Amino acid sequence: MRGVVFTGNRKSELRTFPDPKAGPGEAVVKVRASGLCGTDLHLYRMAQATDTISGHEPCGEIVELGAGANPGLRVGDRVIVHHYAGCAVCEYCSMGYEQLCAKGHVTYGGGTAHGANAEYMLVPARTLVHLPEALSFEGGAALSCGTGTAWNGLNKMKVTGGDIVAVFGQGPVGLSGTLCAKWMGATVIAIDVDRARLDLARKMGADHVIDASTVDPVKAIVDLTGGQGATAALESSGNPVARSQTVACLRPFSRACYVGAGGPAEIDINRDLIFKVTTVFGSWTFSKAELVECARFMVDTGLPLDTLITHRFTLEQAEEAFRLFDAGGTGKCMIVNG
Ligand SMILES: [Zn+2]
Ligand SMILES: [Zn+2]
């Protein structure tokens, strides 16, 4: 089979690998859609090459099951991969949070195990959850990291129709946050420094967009909310300035959730946390159970998941896909296999 590897300094290459074979407890998934995620860019931009296949947003069909694989799975099932594997038995693994495994974990497509930018993928069968009939493979791929992360952050804050949610960053995760917050009923203020991404945010239903390269977003949010501030904020950019603004833009008794990885930031704990009685969440993707819950939300609400996808590529076009995604300004990019 063929798979895409990063060869260092913003270069990628389609290489040939042996076809995977399912061992005990394992499954081979024919990849039907693989999403590009901001985290990929950290590996893509690194000087050193990655030996393992890229792509950590996998969705496809089971083509082979090894002996002793989970009895609820069948060949032909449409599945999303919860793309981490730990020891499977510690407290965190038992919760479905294998990325927090006390003994360490691998991330499929994250530089430690082969990922989804390939024809097939070999994973422990326990990492699979069923993709509901109503969702496309592309939708499932989006949920498996970026969109699921945004949804889970909003879900932790229990966003409802009474909320005014500020979403910092309108890359694939932030755009998903804008779309999901709208479908939870909230009024949404989308913030970014890129015009094209703010235009996409409008398409996802943002009620207001703020270009942080030209105005102070905290002041703009306070002005838009009758001098009060937002009631919830989701931070997806990882930018240190945005990280500070995420809590600065809130009114008292509000919530903030940080999902975007980035450098250290300064937060005025007196002003923005204690004296505003703020609740702050950190959230690292989601557990396997939360992935199932997220997929159910998408089906129940009929949220138009596929509208997030702005660009589709074949495996042969992966180089171009990463170049374009790295340049910014895109929405969700997908590598699709017929
Ligand atoms: Zn574990
Ligand atoms: Zn990701």
List keywords for this structure.
6-stranded parallel beta sheet, alpha/beta, binds zinc ion, Rossmann fold, Quinone Oxidoreductase, Chain A, domain 1, 29% helix, 2 domains, 7-stranded mixed beta sheet, 338 residues
pLDDT < 50 stretches = none
Secondary-structure element order, N to C:
EEEHEEEHEEEHHEHEHEHEHEHEHEHE
Beta-strand share of residues: 25-35%
What summary fits the major beta sheet?
Answer: 7 strands, mixed
Whole-angstrom Rg: 20 Å
Please estimate the helix content.
25-40%
The CATH superfamily title of the largest domain: Medium-chain alcohol dehydrogenases, catalytic domain
Quaternary assembly: single chain
Number of strands: 17
Arithmetic mean pLDDT:
97
Globally, the shape reads globular
Quickly give the structural class.
Answer: alpha/beta
| Total number of helices | 11
Distance between the termini: 15 Å
CATH architecture descriptor text of the largest domain: Alpha-Beta Complex
CATH class of the largest domain: Alpha Beta
CATH fold topology of the largest domain: Quinone Oxidoreductase, Chain A, domain 1
Ligand species: zinc ion
Explain the layout of strands and helices.
Blueprint (H helix, E strand, L loop, with lengths): L1 E5 L5 E5 L9 E10 L2 H8 L12 E8 L12 E4 L2 E2 L5 H4 L11 E2 L12 E5 L3 E3 L6 H7 L2 H11 L7 E5 L3 H12 L3 E6 L2 H9 L4 E4 L5 H8 L5 E6 L4 H9 L1 E9 L10 H6 L4 E4 L5 H14 L7 E5 L4 H9 L5 E5 L2
Parallel strand pairs: 10-11, 10-13, 11-12, 13-14, 14-15, 16-17
Antiparallel strand pairs: 1-2, 3-4, 3-8, 3-17, 4-5, 5-9, 6-7
Helix pairs in contact: 4-5
